[in-house]
Amino acid sequence: MKKPVFPINYRAIELPAYNANTVRAMIGLRVVEKQITHIADNHLLVKMQAAPCNPSDIAFIQGGYNIHKSLPCVLGFEGTGIIVAVGGGLSSDYWLGRRISCFAQDDSDGTWAEYLIARPEQLIPVDEALSIDQAACFFINPFTAFGLFEIAQKRNCQAIVINAAGSRVSDFLFALAKKQQMKTIGIVRRQQTLETLIQKGFDKVLLTTEEAFEDNLKTVLHTYETCVVFDAIAGEQTGLIANSLPANAEIVVYGGLSGKAVSGINPMQLIFKNLTLTGYNLNDWMNNTDNLSFNDVRNTLSTMITSGEVQQPVNTTISMEEIVKGIRNYLGAMSDGKMLIHF
C-alpha cells in the first residue's frame, strides 16, 4: 500500500452551528477543505469509503442529542474505510491496509469526510465479505439491536414489542428473536410498512393511525404476555404503550424520534403493576462488554449480514455536495433504507 504524503488536503462536511430547525440546520451544512499534517501516537488514519446518516445525526445537528462537540465540527457517527497510516505505539502489521467500521462520538471530527483520525477503540476490523455499504452501517444499528436483545434474553421473554418496527434496528431484533423462537410484535405508522413486516414474518403488527389502535394494543400486549418493549419513538407513545402493558413489564427507550419528552405514564402502572422504564445507550453497553465477548458479537452480526439473513437496505447514495438533498430525502423515507455518502 502506498503511504500517504503529509500534509494531506481533504474535504469534509462541517456543521458550523446547532439549529433546532431541521431545515435551517441542513442548509447551514458546508463542504470544507481541511488538512492533516501528521498522525499522533496511538492514532490511525482512515481513508473513508462510505458513511451513513442516522437519526442520531439528525438529532445532533439540531443540538438535541446528548453528545455535543466543539464547533465547527465534521459530522458523522459511523462509517467504513481503509487504514492508510499508523501512529507510534501501534502495530503497522496488524492495522495497515485493514478495512474497518468506525464509531466516532467523542469531541473530535466525525466520519463525513474523506479522511478520519481515530483511536483503535473506535474501530473494528470487518469481514472482507462485507460490502462497503453494509460495513458503513455495521456499528450502530447491529450492535444496538444485540445489546437490546440481551435484555429480553435475561428476562426470558416469550415476546418482544418493537416500536418503530420499520427501522434497521428492528430488522436485527427480528432476526435475533427468530433464532430464539421469540414472538415479535411491531408498531408502525404506515400501512405499507405493516404489510412488509407481516410478509417478513412478524407475529403481529399494529398501526398507530388506526382508530382502534389503543384497544388493539392492550389486547395484543396481554395476549402475548409481553415483558419487554423496545421504544425508539418516545413522547406520548411511550405512555400509551406503558398504560397497556401487563404486570412486570419493561419499556426500554433507545431513541427519541418523536422529538418529545416521554409523557402520559399512569403512575398506577408503576405502583401496582411494577412497570420498569429504562434507557439504553450503546456506549454504555460497549464499555461494559469485554473484548472477547465483543468479538463474538461482531462475528455473529457479521455472519448474519454476509449470509443474507439481515441486510441494511440503502435507499440512496450521494456525494458530499448533495448532502442537503440527501438528508431531505432521508427524512421523508427513513423506513425505505439508509442514505449513504460515498467518498
Put simply, the count of helices is 13
Computed over alpha carbons, the radius of gyration is: 21 Å
How would you name the CATH homologous superfamily of the largest domain? Medium-chain alcohol dehydrogenases, catalytic domain
For the sheet with most strands, the description reads:
7 strands, mixed
Measured between the Cα atoms of the first and last residue, the distance is 19 Å
Q: What percentage of residues falls in helices of 4 or more residues?
A: 25-40%
Which CATH C-level class of the largest domain is it?
A: Alpha Beta
Q: Please count the beta strands (DSSP E, at least 2 residues each).
A: 16
Provide the succession of SSEs. Answer: EHEEHEEHEEEHHEHEHEHEHEHEHHEHE
- Tell me, briefly, the overall form: globular
Domain module tally:
2
Poorly predicted spans: none
Structural class: alpha/beta
Under CATH, the topology of the largest domain can be stated as: Quinone Oxidoreductase, Chain A, domain 1
Average pLDDT confidence is 96
Strand content: 15-25%
CATH architecture type of the largest domain = Alpha-Beta Complex
